[in-house]
Amino acid sequence: AALGHGWPVVLIMGTMTASAGGLLRDVVANEKPLLLLKSEIYATAALLGSLVYFLTSLWLGDEFLAFILGLVSAFVLRALGIIFKLSLPRSPF
């Protein structure tokens, strides 16, 4: 958003960065990649955080506030998913 890119770029890059970072963390820690194994709310939380960041920076123009609100929204959704054992539907294939 700060570089003037539209919402598709912001949402895709935010989601990909968070997901790839988590995947890299698991590989470096020699653990099974959480992103690939379970249908937990993982990339969805990153997508929500990216969306909140984009909309906040667009409407309020404050990048720092947008960062904080995006971070908190992604964290809260991910934490609720873990606490309540929420998951996304799995493909039967």
Structure description:
This is Trimeric intracellular cation channel family protein. This protein is an all-alpha fold and 93 residues long. It has one domain. It has 4 helices and no strands. Helix 1 runs antiparallel to helix 3. The longest helix has 22 residues. The relative contact order is 0.16.
Topology of this protein?
Blueprint: H1 7-28, H2 34-37, H3 43-60, H4 63-83
In percent terms, what proportion of residues is strand?
A: under 5%
Q: Overall pLDDT, averaged?
A: 89
The value of Rg in angstroms is 14 Å
Helix content: 55-70%
Could you give the count of β-strands? 0
* Category by helix and strand content: mainly alpha
Tell me the overall shape.
globular
Order of helices and strands: HHHH
Unreliable stretches (pLDDT < 50, length at least 5) are none
Number of domains: 1
Number of helices: 4
Largest β-sheet summary: none
Distance between the termini: 37 Å
Subcellular location: Cell membrane
Family: Belongs to the UPF0126 family.
Membrane topology: Multi-pass membrane protein
Protein name: Trimeric intracellular cation channel family protein
